[in-house]
Request: fold
Amino acid sequence: MNMIQNPKAYCLVFLFLVYCLTSCSDVKYSQGEALYLANCSSCHMPEAGGVAKLYPALNDLRNSDVKLDALPCIIRYGQNKDIYSLEMEGLKNLSSIEINNIINYLLNDINGIELEYSIDRTKGNLQNCKDTD
Amino acid sequence: MMQIRIIGIIAVIGFFVVACESKSSDKPLPIIGRLEIVDGDTIHHTIPDFEFINQDSQLVTNQELTEYIYISDFFFTSCPSICPIVKKQMLRIYDKYKSNSMVKLVSHTIDPKRDTADKLKRYAADLGVDTGKWVFLTGDKESLLDIADAYFVAAYEDPDAPGGFDHSGKIILVDTKRQVRSFAEGTDPEDVDRFLKDIDKLLHEYDSKS
Reply:
């Protein structure tokens, strides 16, 4: 039996292609995703849509007032309570690499901004954080 | 042998279809809580008298709510765990009934020490809601924790819990007679879908009376 004439073979090839396409759409920064879901998602929501101004959305960083270079300090030291009614607490237990992974997850996987935020950029910004406490 | 199997499968599917249908019946919403019989009369559980202050430091009692059905929850602004997601669902309810003058929303803080009237006012502003429609209450801590009980919400101080308080994320529907008529798990959007239908059902009770 010639394989090319066998409809079952076509079917299998088709299913294999579908499998490939769906598995290729996985997140790029899976550690960042896991850290985001564990540390950020209960306030900023799993899809990063936030809740009104109370918990700002993180899925529209292109149009946000927040500068990308401010992100590492906000994640580590939190957000000043004078801006919002609620104070964001910092995630002081996260390493620079973990913070970097969260930022890359937000940029690439959530916002679709194709930008590799380098670890040097994260570390550089972390050295210049203003003490908010 | 094959036939028995097919009959079995049909029976199982049939069971689920029937079970689902009986769920979506047009029975009125139950009145939730323990019944008491006093002098031969059946007394339903009701929300007791309360006196709290709102986000504008004005006194609020049950009196202000007697003409409304209201949706209630318990939270605190510094709550890092389930409160944001519950608030997101409360916001959905608010958006749906924004223009229905029969409906109010009432959120109670269980952390009055930190959640002063002014703090709640800023919180409501950031939430972007009209506080004439959605009231935020604070007051005496014991009274707030006690009234949570009457709404069947577990709320207590617990130094080990995130933020210092442990509480359930229930959203509660109360009718004009202070009776609890439905609940939703505020952390479960699908359960809130069902709850929205319950609110419609309760509103319908008042439609048919007027």
